[in-house]
Specification:
Helix 5 links the parallel strand 5 and strand 6. The protein is mainly alpha-helical. About 55% of the residues lie in helices and about 5% in strands. The chain contains eleven helices and six strands. It has one domain. The chain has a two-stranded antiparallel ribbon with strand order 1-4. A two-stranded antiparallel sheet has the order 2-3. It has a two-stranded parallel ribbon with strand order 5-6. Helix 8 packs across helix 11. The C terminus is likely disordered. The radius of gyration is 19 Å and the shape is globular.
Length: about 270
């Protein structure tokens, strides 16, 4: 009840305060790229209920038919004004409407497209027991996904094979440990990440997994997963997700704090 009240208050306030900026962005999109101004893609919400998300359109109108859901910053489908909006996360602002409508929350696992939700194991479907959100531990861990995918040779495969499994661990950790105070902490860290823009922890995958030169085939696709392989992956995820989720969340918190401290000390040294 308290969480929902906070969602309504903050989302309504944000929409009122940001209305002039939202109108300017909408006018710029219509002037440069035409209609529609909003992207209304289908996402899966609480209890598996589909809904249409609100985002400012940053890609070509037929983008979903021209490529996959994982989008690198270098994707040719992104419009000129879309690149600027995505860089500063301004395309996400209309999601306050989804929060106000009760389809999303301020804090919660990011809503996924139906094809990725279909890959969830029975244990991982716990993620669907809460409202999806604008930000969570996984969002903070992978705060600049487009830039990370731009450094890889195969963005869609990189997302499915490496990024998505780590995000699921963090999403499960959030669902199992969520509280009002956890939500406040995540919101504070989200504001910090937007202002100071530290390098997201997900970029460590470039070193540990050698993603930039990866050529192996995708091991987790919607159409071609063998049943035995999928069952083995599900069992492994069920055993490791809770432990890894706690570890990733702790590592993420330390990373964000150290980034903040490092930047603060750097400014002080410059002043001297």
């Amino acid at each position: 009840m308290l969480k929902r009240a906070l969602d309504v208050f903050i989302s309504a306030t944000a929409l009122v305060v940001l209305l002039p900026a939202l109108l300017v962005i909408a006018a710029a999109i219509q002037l440069c790229d035409g209609r529609p101004v909003f992207y209304r893609g289908i996402r899966i919400g609480r209890y598996g209920t589909p809904f249409r998300i609100f985002k400012f359109r940053t890609m070509a109108v037929d983008a979903e038919r021209l490529g996959g859901s994982a989008t690198a910053d270098t994707d040719v489908r992104i419009t000129r004004i879309g690149r600027a909006l995505r860089k500063h996360k301004l395309d996400e602002l209309p999601q306050f409407i989804n929060v106000l409508l009760g389809e999303m929350s301020l804090v919660g696992p990011r809503p996924e497209v139906p094809e990725y939700v279909a890959l969830l194991s029975e244990a991982e479907q716990l993620i669907l027991s809460v409202r999806p959100g604008i930000t969570d531990w996984a969002t903070l861990w992978d705060a600049d996904e487009g830039a990370l995918l731009a450094l890889t040779s195969e963005p869609e495969r990189t997302y499915v094979d490496f990024i998505r499994p780590e995000k699921i661990k963090l999403q499960l950790h959030y669902v199992r440990t969520c509280s009002f105070w956890t939500d406040l902490l995540i919101m504070w860290k989200t504001v910090h990440a937007i202002i100071f823009r530290p390098t997201p922890p997900s970029f460590a995958l470039l070193r540990t997994r050698n993603l930039a030169r990866r050529q192996a085939p995708c091991t987790a696709t919607v159409a071609s997963n063998a049943p035995s392989e999928r069952e083995a992956a599900q069992n492994k995820n069920e055993r490791e997700s809770e432990i890894d989720g706690r570890g990733l969340a702790a590592e993420l918190a330390c990373h964000l704090e150290s980034s903040f401290i490092g930047r603060t000390l750097g400014r002080r040294q410059k002043k001297r």
